[in-house]
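Table S2 (continued). Query chain:
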Amino acid sequence: MDYNNLSATNLIATIAGDSQALALMERYGSLTAIARADERELTELPGVGTATAAKLKSALGLAVKLSEESLPESPLLDTPERVADLMREEMRVQHVETLFVLLLNTRRRLIQKVKISQGSIDTLLVHPREVFRAAIVHNAAAICVVHNHPSGSATASSADISVTRDLIRAGQLLKIEVVDHIIMGLRTAETPKDFSSLRELGYFYS
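Corresponding output:
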């Protein structure tokens, strides 16, 4: 079977069954929305048991990993656009606010990507020590902080700005530069850019 030419509904049917696939796509409308749903929510649909929900989440997780394998080794992350390209697939399946720190070497190449915390739909609490712990362990010269807004808007909140300034101050003390804080959202007709850079917006300057 040529899986590359199957529709999203047909691919889901190979895992969950035909009627379940139709019900899933009717309820959620897209693979992204299904990926954002947790397993318990998926099992609310008739015929979608715990095992099937787990298989669906696993298959969608593999899709994210597949997209990562197409990236060159140790990608250069010296612009907000490159950071957004790296994180887009992973962030769009998160149904709550999730914060990652990208550990960078002196040439702004990725050392490691680390998930720091998850919050609620619109709240994310993070302490600088959690952000910098991995950077210290891996001897990173710099970090870039990335988190998502599940609402779709990439506009920085007052809390986002406050956290960013706390991180900048902590980084100055530790001699680890915070190069940017990227907020990932969704593209719309009104906002074709699906991310914002707090550095570009001027929040890294006094």
